[in-house]
Design a protein that fits this description.
The chain is an alpha/beta fold. It has two domains: 239 residues, Purple Acid Phosphatase, chain A, domain 2, CATH 3.60.21; 127 residues, no CATH class. Helices cover 31% and strands 24% of the residues. The longest helix has 22 residues.
């Protein structure tokens, strides 16, 4: 038989609003471009099938423009077959109307997998889908695959949505999918969705990750997999392909007195076109008040160059001496306030949260005075 090739993707979350991000419009536009990018990957990889392992849509009832545009674009790629699995966000109980509307469009190359039953995938392969009927399943939706018999020599591909361990992401219960389902069900490949980063569970069990990142938990740009299987029992060859427009990055700065915080920040930032990067910086450790002010000023200067930039200093302690307080005010009400904040920031009798709040207030006071001086 000719080797089976397909694209494994998941968690498209079409229609995600990205509220709270100043450039939410750009993020939404990039997400709407996923179908075109996945089409390009499939064609370049010689893969006639695109397997979407759940969460095609962000909500069970997406706007008509969202699902109709996606379906129209898939239908236009008539050389590819799109296999769509309901996940937890667009489960059958909540999204039945949406899935029925998609089926009613009648596109021959779009298959909604709403039943846990084997489906032919070409002449020498079978797809075993595990659609989610509810948002929070109480049992393993892939369990039926172990008892499903197929003819000898047929490649068996499982398609499911859910965690194989407690990822701590989203609302899905831990350990929904058995991590050894490939062995108990004699699967040649188990294509999973739900975890938004590319993850190899075993040789035959993989998460492809979302093709366009949805948050900072998974660094870098979104991905999908191009999978090739020579025949039943053959190990799959899995290639991870980058598909995301935007890169999401967490940066941690461990700072000590004497550091040049602006230089440390610049050196730690990810490379690439900054307008396409979202960066979350966590500063921790200890800094003199003047250096903390310099760090905030550097972040304020460089932040607008990025699609999104956030500096979190709640874990940064203040190292304060009389000279620092003199920079705020040598006498008077400001000096009294800054002295009290410095004492609270160093008071072991207070909670860590209260000490952090006092340190943050002291840094802000120093920064405001410095700004006034400039």
């Amino acid at each position: 038989m000719t080797a089976l090739r397909f694209v494994h993707t998941a968690d498209l979350h079409l229609g995600r609003p990205f509220g709270g991000f100043p450039e939410a419009d750009r993020l939404r536009v990039a997400r709407r471009g996923l179908i075109a990018r996945l089409t390009d990957v499939a064609r370049q990889g010689g893969a006639p099938h695109v397997l979407v392992a759940g969460d095609v849509f962000e909500t069970p009832n997406p706007a008509a423009q969202t699902w109709r545009q996606a379906v129209a674009e898939m239908a236009e790629a008539a050389d590819l077959t799109w296999w769509l699995l309901p996940g937890n966000h667009d489960n059958l109980a909540a999204a039945r109307t949406t899935w029925e509307a998609i089926q009613a469009r009648g596109a021959a190359n779009i298959r909604v997998l709403d039943t846990a039953a084997p489906v032919p995938l070409g002449e020498h392969a079978v797809l075993l889908p595990a659609p989610l009927t509810v948002r929070r399943p109480s049992s393993d939706p892939t369990a039926w695959m172990a008892a499903c018999e197929t003819p000898p020599g047929i490649v068996r591909i499982g398609l499911a949505h859910g965690p194989v361990q407690g990822f701590g992401e989203g609302e899905m219960p831990a350990d929904v999918v058995a991590p050894d389902r490939d062995r108990t069900a004699a699967l040649d490949y188990l294509a999973l969705g739900d975890w938004h980063g590319a993850l190899r569970v075993s040789d035959r069990v993989h998460y492809a990750g979302t093709p366009e990142r949805t948050g900072f938990l998974h660094p870098g740009r979104g991905t999908c997999h191009v999978v090739e299987i020579a025949g039943a029992g053959s190990p799959p060859h899995v290639e991870t392909v980058e598909t995301g427009v935007f890169g999401w990055h967490r940066v941690t700065l461990d700072l000590v007195p004497g550091d040049d915080p602006a230089a440390r920040l610049t050196a730690a930032l990810p490379q690439g076109p900054r307008r396409d990067l979202l960066v979350q910086v966590t500063a921790q450790g200890r800094l003199r008040l003047g250096d903390a002010t310099a760090l905030a000023a550097a972040a304020e200067e460089i932040g607008p160059e990025f699609c999104h930039f956030d500096l979190d200093t709640t874990a940064l302690s203040a190292e304060v001496d009389a000279a620092d307080l003199d920079e705020i005010a040598p006498t008077g009400a400001l000096r009294a306030a800054s002295t009290e904040l410095a004492a609270e920031a160093a008071d072991p009798a207070l909670s860590a949260r209260d000490r952090a709040l006092a340190a943050a207030a002291l840094r802000r006071l120093h920064a405001l005075v410095a700004e006034g001086g400039r």
